[in-house]
Amino acid sequence: MAIATHPVRTPKITETGLFIDGRFQPSAGGKTFPTINPATEEVLAEISEGTAEDVDRAVRAARRALQSGPWATMDARDRGSLLLQLADAIQQEREELAVLETLDNGKRLADSRVDVTLCVEALRYYAGYADKIYGKTIPVRGPFFTYTRREPVGVAGQIIPWNFPMVNVVWKWAPALAAGCTVVLKPAEQTPLTALRLARIAKEAGIPDGVVNVVPGGPATGAAIVRHPGVDKIAFTGSCEVGQTIMREAASTLKRVTLELGGKSPNILFADCDLDTAIAQSHNALYWNQGQVCASGSRLFVEDKIYDQVVEKIAERNRKYKVGDPFDPETEQGPQVDRAQFEKVLDYIGLGKHEGAECLTGGGRFGNRGYYVEPTLFANVKDEMVIAREEIFGPVLCALRFSDVEEVIERANNTTFGLAAAVWTRDITKAHRLANRIKAGTVWINCYYGVDLAAPFGGYRMSGLGRELGEEGILGYTELKTVAVKLA
Ligand code: NAD
């Protein structure tokens, strides 16, 4: 079936070079790579691909901006003001940014608009933090005045994925800049457009040259950032495998590393929950953003008594779910981000069928153009099946049956991940018992995706290292220094 393409104002794609030291420029070797519209499979633009030489230039620019020039001596409060200016400038270009994001990533235009708001809010939140990074005075033994200072960690290398391209840029920039760092950011090769547009907006908003640098490219570009001795910290969001590689590579220079990685988060429905809300949100917990969310509720544990009812209602929703052009306001699910992800998701679906899970809805490609996958629901999934253990990162939900509290705690924790979890129950004691016992960086009770800028977010175990957002997010861009003054 062919998918109609909604007529849309196409923004002119003008930022295609590397953004280094405040200006766009071609890569050292002149090499480019295409970025593709996943809804149509057409090339949107050719983007300069950063080489190790380009990364070196970007790191040197970031270092210069850190040590000399206006950024180095700027009052924290003035840095905060600049972040507020950047927030306003982004707000001004809201619609262009949202359209670019949808073209490049395939997410619904409505979701891209929300993402712009998330960017603006993150800048405003961290702008207020810039002059509130405190040290402590320490009551040591002897005649000393001893205190700590939090200093910017230095040049931050930021490597991000494609599922929330623009949000990932700003959620990395905002705490880093508020803390006084400078950055070299590499967007995902699938979705470089909004990062480059944001670089231009940052310059126009008055962020000094060299403070933010954007070097697009693939794994080799990312690896060059990780290896560079002039980078003090790596902030990475992406897959566990690449996270492990980065941690290994960073060991040679002992860079600071924060990792936001994948998950296979349990979403647990007890029979005493508010069922209608739980079903609606559990559906959204997996199918929102085409299932491409690190914290998606991909293991749906449902208590015996309500299992058949829940599974049928989710299947019913899937049958009506509108897959199609992400610019169409009626659309509920757009395409997967690229061919590789599309094929990976279809492979997992094939594997699930082969493993003997019951495929209740979907199970294949949707349409014949664009990387669309049918909303797929597997019932009677067993814990040991690959589809219940590995992150699929697509619109594929696994429903599992349980009958007992202790049983579900043990099964929910029986994973190498630990990013998020949700519990649905009206029993407050049970809710807290699970919140305490589940090994995950975030546990939501009677809600899903209760993410807030002020609350730390990150993973237990193989879902990551360190935390982003909130106070922890900005402290991760600081080094702690102790100063001891002898008083006698
Ligand atoms: P990925 O790990 O393949 O790529 C992420 C980024 O790393 C890209 O920019 C890529 O070019 C770069 N990269 C790849 N190899 C590299 C290397 N050797 N050295 C340095 N950089 C390298 O991940 P992906 O497929 O783009 O994204 C999906 C993954 O991201 C999922 O596992 C998802 O769960 C995770 N994710 C996690 C969070 C979170 O906050 N925990 C948020 C979004 C996505």
Mean pLDDT: 97
CATH architecture term of the largest domain? 3-Layer(aba) Sandwich
Structural class: alpha/beta
Sheet with the most strands: spatial strand order:
14-15-16-13-12-17-18
Bound molecules: nicotinamide-adenine-dinucleotide
Strand percentage:
15-25%
Briefly, what CATH class of the largest domain?
A: Alpha Beta
How helix-rich are the residues, as a percent range?
A: 25-40%
> Count of DSSP helices?
16
Strand segment tally: 20
Q: What is the CATH topology descriptor of the largest domain?
A: Aldehyde Dehydrogenase, Chain A, domain 1
Q: What shape does the CA trace take? A: globular
Q: Main sheet?
A: 7 strands, mixed
Rg from Cα: 23 Å
List low-confidence stretches: none
Q: What's the CATH H-level homologous superfamily of the largest domain?
A: Aldehyde Dehydrogenase, Chain A, domain 1
How far is the N terminus from the C terminus?
A: 84 Å
Provide a concise account of the structure shown.
This protein is of the alpha/beta class. The protein has 16 helices and 20 strands.
